[in-house]
Specification:
Rossmann fold; 306 residues; seven-stranded parallel sheet; alpha/beta; binds 3-phosphoglyceric acid; 12 helices
Length: 306
Amino acid sequence: MKVLVATEKPFAKVAVDGIRKEIEAAGFELALLEKYTDKAQLLDAVKDANAIIIRSDIIDAEVLDAAKELKIVVRAGAGYDNVDLAAATAHNVCVMNTPGQNANAVAELALGMMVYAVRNFYNGTSGTELMGKKLGIHAYGNVGRNVARIAKGFGMEVYAFDAFCPKEVIEKDGVKALDSAEELYKTCQVVSLHIPATAETKNSINYALLKDMPKGAMLVNTARKEVINEAELIKLMEDRADFKYITDIMPAANAEFAEKFAGRYFSTPKKMGAQTAEANINAGIAAAQQIVGFLKDGCEKFRVNK
Ligand code: 3PG
């Protein structure tokens, strides 16, 4: 059995070593395609792969057509919007993710970006503090929970809204659960986004939702750029000189944001929420173990294309 690790944005070496150990201990072979720049390289590498470990790499119908021997794709991470699930099901390929494995890394980055922003991007001027600010966590999954835990350490007042998580679960963590996204944005000066990119959430963070955020508002995005209605966010930031947008996923309109909103806009050059050795080890090794469990014992835990 051949397991391909196809990562345009590679794992830390220590994680690749750990993945190799798991794969070889199961008697399988590991192949690596890292930092590829062209889809043709991926199409070629998948030809004889029985299993693939990916990150944000795109697995679409064309890749699945080329991967004649493929049985399973594991997205080492949480969001699987980069995999065409319907095409995978049609090709009889199991798709899994590794929920929670990189959540702390993303949460730490979200708080780090908040500090960076309230301290005026470390430009030497006087900023403000996170303590006492109201933080809204939009979606209370694995990352949201970690953001809440860390934010409480900073002395923030933490609120959350999650359409799918019962209020009691949120409130058990000492977080105030609100009834709607509208209420969350109206209440909180800082909102941290943790919703997945789905047909329902795409473009859902729009002018109407953001306009009522309290004075000195800041939106922090370590989720997906697709959930933002960029044109409406630009309009809002034109209308509100107090609004900051801080993101780990560079918007399509990055140049326009950077030019128009200097001092209140920041984007990392490449999504780096999950770029830690720990997250790479956790998610990479979990992916390898899930592949071994599936190929050897038919275990389908964490399958997302049921
Ligand atoms: C995820 O969905 O797990 C995160 O967005 C991390 O993605 P990455 O592995 O591409 O950095």
